[in-house]
TrEMBL record:
Belongs to the TonB-dependent receptor family. This is TonB-dependent receptor. The keyword Membrane applies. It holds the Pfam family TonB_dep_Rec_b-barrel. It is found in: Cell outer membrane. Residues 280-724 form the TonB-dependent receptor-like beta-barrel domain.
Length: 761
């Protein structure tokens, strides 16, 4: 059966399911049952106003703080398990700089200076650095995932959508909590918060968290260092002050650190098929390079039977540090409200990698990054019974200092034709980004049930870059390159580049919301989002990259429609949406033969999502979600053999399914809640070439949890098993291009327990 026929049938079945559920909504919703913890309605601020997520004409997924705890979410990256359409990739493994992909829109470049098209916000503060996307999720009120272009309501424009983390704020009563957990690999987690009034009109809240874990990826070399351990700390202090009835000020000081041994991965020997120009895995019984069956050009292959085991001759230290201060001022002017958000955030990232994933002194990559970010947002908001409007201005300044090094030792370099000695590339550079924008949006009722939304945004992005590029060779290069090493080596290339670009663009949104009843919303919108251009610092110094050093802004036009059905009986929620994305100058990423760059091409994406929550019996909750991508085409991609073809966008599986089943069982005044949750992802590519070696087959993950809640609702105990079947899969796969590929692996089976206690009012 052809793929087109299968996809057409899938579309038809999805539409039929939606019509079937909508037709029987009254019958399913007729008897009222108590709200479950998982699946209950959440008040969100996706439109900068507190509204039920079921009343917002945007495709949105939201999880409350209690739901995050019930799902076992410990860090920001866990959200991908429970959010249809949200994907995560990390060249460097877990806890390293990570990039989110939503509906196929993402940024695959792992350089720290790039901004992703899916924006991350923490309490309305934008995080520009990919380094800042991996952090502990603690003391949260909720998380909101907004799909599609965002720019007419939020400070920084985003083409793919955004993820907003909303923390718990100081209150006028004393309260707090403590969570302590222990699990496999000696994983220790702890978090807690305490807050309340200090004086009249003055409140504070202190929140702390830590996660420690031994390395589960083993190194079989004598005295070898494994990987995938965790050593993370984070803290946040908030001080809220109300000098008058109309003015509220909140200051937040935050910090986080994650350091230790970075992630390890599995070595895959690869070769380029001359007929297709694509990278394939070398079979274990084929001596492709004349160095032994299954071996790469340096004579190595990973033959360990244990999936999470390797042989690594080099260390892989990693450190991520973050600190920041923000100030939020809210002024009530009657019908108008004025908001000011001022923030400074500093990121530091140090990363070293045994790139060849083997015992041979072959390839080594390193990163040093320091990023300072200042932002100022002003919003004037107007609310009346008839019209709701918002006008805002945003300023962002990002200063970054970066240095990358890539060393090709003679074990790989000599057979690859780089000469008899070691070769190294050292590239220090600075990037300065300055962005100004004004934006606004208005909601105007056309009838009692029909509402028009219109918004626009003007943005100017200016970027400056100063880059030095050195390529040297000498017999024995050290693991850490310095300017002295460059001076004491034979120079093959030494160049300095200064670049400046300025981009101006306009984004907009038009939408209609039809709400014929309190439990039904139908919405449709057309939205344009844009993201500024930038620069490609070479991964390995080469003059060949200069013609493609810069890339242009990308423009995404989204056409979307959807339906939201709410109920209080068996059917609690049925949400469905369908969309078409037209991309002009999509910022695609390619990595080939140690050359990494972003380039522009047109693209088109079409898909849909569905979320269904049922309460078929008292205490029983079933939650199902699906994200389906029918088309995700990057046009006119030039393959390594020179052929030009359309390719599937990376991280766009045909289907991504999520599910949860939970049963709350009363035991006297206490409660026991067994829970199963998981997801299934069909096969997908991790690169725009669609290399077979970078392809992940479909896989499913299943988790089991058991909760006990004491009669006073303050004390609770949970037991968990994650990746119950010990599924082996590649969380990210990257063909390095030097006869080998890297497979960064998903976590093996883990299990443990967590004790929680809430105190105060």
């Amino acid at each position: 059966m052809g793929a087109k026929v299968v996809k057409k049938r899938l579309k038809f079945r999805y539409l039929a399911l939606g019509l079937h559920v909508c037709a029987f909504t009254p019958a399913l919703a007729q008897d009222r049952r108590p709200d479950p913890i998982v699946g209950s309605d959440i008040i969100v601020t996706a439109t900068k106003r507190g509204e039920s997520q079921q009343s917002v004409g945007i495709s949105i997924s939201a999880l409350s703080g209690d739901q995050l705890s019930a799902l076992g979410v410990k860090n920001s990256t866990d959200l991908t398990l429970y959010t249809p359409g949200l994907q995560l990739q990390s060249a460097g493994g877990e806890s390293n700089a990570m990039a989110l992909t939503l509906r196929g829109v993402g940024q695959s470049d792992f350089n720290d200076h790039q901004e992703g098209p899916v924006a991350i916000y923490i309490d309305e503060v934008y995080s520009s650095a990919l380094t800042g996307t991996s952090f502990l999720a603690f003391d949260l009120d909720r998380v909101e995932v907004l799909r599609g272009p965002q720019g007419t309501l939020f400070g920084r424009n985003a083409t793919g959508g955004l993820v907003q983390f909303v923390t718990r704020k100081p209150t006028d009563h004393f309260d707090g909590y403590v969570d302590v957990g222990y699990g496999r690999f000696n994983e220790f987690t702890a978090e807690g918060a305490v807050g309340g009034p200090i004086a009249k009109g003055l409140q504070a809240r202190l929140s702390l968290a830590t996660e420690q874990r031994d390395r589960y990826f083993k190194n079989t070399l004598p005295n070898g260092v494994g990987g995938n351990g965790k050593n993370s700390f984070a803290g946040r202090f908030q001080l809220a002050w109300q000098p008058s009835d109309t003015v509220s000020i909140r200051t937040v000081v935050r910090g986080a650190e994650s350091k230790g041994s970075g992630a390890r991965g599995r070595h895959i020997t690869s070769y380029i098929d001359p007929a297709t120009g694509l990278a394939n895995a070398v079979p274990d019984n084929v001596d492709y390079y004349g160095t032994g069956p299954g071996n790469d050009i340096a004579g190595y292959k990973n033959s360990n039977g244990n999936y999470w085991t390797g042989e690594f001759d080099q260390t892989n230290p990693m450190t991520i540090k973050l600190w920041g201060v923000s100030n939020h001022i809210d002024i009530d002017l009657g019908a108008f409200k004025l908001f000011s958000i001022t923030d400074y955030t500093n990121f530091k990232h140090i990363y070293r990698e045994d790139t060849d994933f083997g015992p041979v002194r072959g390839l080594r990559y390193g990163v040093n990054s320091t990023i300072g970010q200042f932002s100022q947002e002003l919003r004037l908001q107007y609310d009346s019974d008839a019209v709701k409007a918002l006008l805002g201005a945003y300023f962002l300044n990002v200063d970054g200092d970066f240095q990358t090094q890539f060393i090709v030792y003679k074990a790989y370099g000599t057979p690859l034709g780089l000469g008899p000695d070691d070769s190294a590339s050292l590239i220090p550079w600075t990037t300065k980004t300055r962005s100004y924008s004004v934006f606004g949006q208005a909601d105007v009722p056309l009838t009692d049930t029909l509402k028009l939304t219109a918004g626009a945004r003007w943005t100017q992005d200016t970027k400056k870059q100063h880059l030095d590029s050195y390529l040297v060779t000498r017999p024995d290069l050290p693991d850490e390159l310095t300017s002295a090493d460059i001076a004491g080596s034979t120079s093959l290339l030494s160049e300095t580049y200064r670049n400046r670009r300025s981009d101006k663009f306009i984004s907009w949104k038009l939408g209609l919301d039809w709400k014929p009843s309190p439990k039904l919303l139908v919405f449709a919108s057309a939205t344009r989002g844009q993201k500024g251009g930038g620069y490609n610092p070479p991964f390995f110094a080469s003059d060949a990259l200069l013609p493609r050093f810069s890339f242009k802004p990308e423009q995404l036009t989204s056409y979307e429609s959807g339906i939201k059905v709410s109920g209080s009986g068996i059917l609690r929620r049925f949400n469905a949406s369908a969309y078409i994305y037209d991309y002009k100058d999509f910022q695609a990423f390619q990595f080939f033969n140690a050359s990494a760059l972003i380039f522009n091409t047109d693209a088109r994406v079409a898909g849909s999502e569905v979320e269904l929550i049922l309460a078929p019996a008292p205490g029983l909750t079933a939650q199902l979600g699906g994200a389906f991508i029918f088309k995700a085409t990057a046009k006119d991609i030039t393959l390594p053999n020179g052929a030009v073809k359309d390719r599937r966008l990376p991280l766009t599986p045909d289907a991504q399914l999520t599910g949860l089943l939970r049963y709350d069982i009363p035991v006297g005044e206490a409660q026991i809640s067994p829970q199963l949750d998981g997801r299934y992802v069909t096969s997908q590519y991790y690169d725009v070439f669609n290399n077979p070696v970078d392809t992940q087959k479909g896989y499913g993950l299943l988790n089991a949890r058991l909760f006990y809640t004491a009669p006073d609702k303050r004390l609770s105990l949970s037991l968990f098993v994650e990746n119950l079947t010990n599924k082996k899969y590649g969380a990210y796969i990257l063909d390095v291009g030097l006869t080998m590929a890297q497979a960064w692996l998903g976590q093996p089976r883990t299990y443990g327990a967590k004790l929680s206690y809430k105190f105060g009012e």
